């Protein structure tokens, strides 16, 4: 980190940081969580604009001399980074003169005053925020040694305070703690700490940290293929339902992967599909790519063929090509093609950790092949079957067919003496109960969606009605407004902030 | 204390390596050994203290012998317990000490055990723990082949491959596997054949004699005519309408409709 001069752009960032600290103070003073959430929402923008120099100056200004945070951070971001020489002062004055020429004298005076306001960090929230910003900066600069030290300091600091307002900071710090250890290869060693932190956060009802820790632990287990441990964690813990969407999506992804290994393909498919639906449209490319890959394989394992849209997303198209070839081989029931593709792309599959699942697809290829024969032939000899499906010997064909009949893949009778298999004719489908079952499923699904939609709609109206009951004097007026609101809601023009009663 | 441990372990090894180990003596020795090891702090040491590789190797050897003992004594519960005790020594402490020769043998036995009981989910989770490179090892390869054949339904293939297991210790599991395969074959045959003459039935069902075939036929109520077993295939021409179910469903739909309106 070389020393350099603070550019005016940096001064603006420092200004913003000061405002954010003030917001955090306001949040604690008035006990309103929204300001804290607002600050954290801007985190992704803020972290991009920060440089070590900004941090050095800001830390020096905002933290008191005695604070332990300051002593640690000052070591990492030394103040010598900033050249405070006369040249800087002169440049500032020149700027001010130029701007004075325009008729904005008063504004300039204000700005000068603001620049000189020093915001001191009063509350642990602000200290935690500064720690978090420094951590993000170190992570960006890939300074993992210092970052790890800061993580551990921050975790200690926050856990001792035990304030619910610090929960969101703690969850972020834990995420980076886990990630840095993963990069350094120390994942095995931190499991104990993560588990005990999870216990603490559950006792304290710290929702965001619980969610992040479960995801970190699952990721840790999956890295070492410890699927049974991951399964045990899932069965013993409850993922908090009111966590952030990003954590929920990650949880669904890990859950889907574990279920797939345990042969619970329908459940796995459901989880992965939900994860894909809730993930961001653009961005998070690596995640979406991985979800698509697993979705493709799991869908093949359930016996369905994935639709072609799965492979056609613009930015993922290139990387999904091996999976596309695999799907075509399975679709045609061609065992030879399947073996070729697997051999050729083995490296790619092993890297994606889908290899073991793909090896299980062999069964599916044979099943699809038999199904095709079912619809194409009424009678076929074992020898012909073994040639068409490229199975090794015609002796085994008989028992394979017999098992397939038992599993319900095909409907047929084997004639052992004359060595052929005879397929039963498909009767009139509509005279069976199958259409009714299919309709029943679809009806249930639509009713489900309808009921959940109604439930979600009722919530703000109930809140409004509560407000009406409280202010009985303005009762009639508010009832009128209520009706207007619900009318707007039905037309879809209403604009309800989740959880807030709106403008009554 | 150490001397006693060594003495006990040598005796235990001697007992286990016999063809037919004495069950009571072995189990007694094992308990004594485990207590002694626990007192020394060798059994499952925590990872907080630095680990002495010699102790770990010693404990692992004893537990491996315990697994082999349970196989020879054909005690499956004991086998399961011992396997779960020896696994941490392969995976968690694995980095500190060099690989045991018997690791793949024991893990392979566990896989075959799960296969023979048709616990395919656990089979796959266990398989994930084994590295890809080890999959070509004969102990593991055997299991993978059996799994493939089982999934395909290639029961003839299973018969051929089971004649040459990679180790004598596998024979216990192989016989259990044969039993489960037999049951599977019976189920499949019931559905897929109209009739089967007794000789082919004997080959298919992997039975020793025609008498056994007749017994099985009686058990499953398959009549035997002209030296052939006749399987009764259910004719699904007249499917009864499940009236209760249909009525209940329609009432549910009516209820939901009322709610909406």
TrEMBL record, chain A:
The protein's matches in SUPFAM superfamilies, at most eight in alphabetical order, are given as: Winged helix' DNA-binding domain
Q: Does the keyword Coiled coil apply?
A: no
Spell out the residue ranges making up region: Disordered. Answer: 92-111, 474-504
Task: Report the superkingdom from the record.
Answer: Eukaryota
Q: Which residues form the PCI domain?
A: 249-428
Q: Does the entry feature the keyword Lipoprotein, yes or no? A: no
Show the ranges annotated as biased composition (Basic and acidic residues): 474-496
The cross-references to InterPro entries, in alphabetical order and at most eight, read: CSN3, PCI_dom, PSMD3_C, TPR_PSMD3_N, WH_DNA-bd_sf
Q: Could you tell me which Pfam families the record lists for this protein?
A: PCI, Rpn3_C, TPR_PSMD3_N
Instruction: Name a GO CC annotation attached to this entry.
Output: proteasome complex
Q: Which PROSITE patterns match?
A: PCI
Q: Where is the signal peptide?
A: none
Q: Which residues form a coiled coil?
A: none
Q: Which UniProt keywords apply?
A: Proteasome
Name the family the entry cites: Belongs to the proteasome subunit S3 family.
Protein known as: 26s proteasome non-atpase regulatory subunit 3
In its UniProt entry, the species of origin is given as: Anaeramoeba flamelloides
Automatic annotation (TrEMBL), chain B:
One Pfam family this sequence matches: CSN8_PSD8_EIF3K
Keyword Ion transport listed: no
- Protein keywords: Proteasome
Question: Which superkingdom does the taxonomy of this entry point to?
Answer: Eukaryota
Please give an example of a GO cellular component term from this record.
proteasome complex
Residue stretches making up the PCI domain? 74-248
Asked whether the UniProt record includes Manganese among its keywords, one would answer: no
Family the UniProt entry places it in? Belongs to the proteasome subunit S14 family.
| Name the record gives this protein | 26s proteasome non-atpase regulatory subunit 8
The species this protein was found in: Anaeramoeba flamelloides
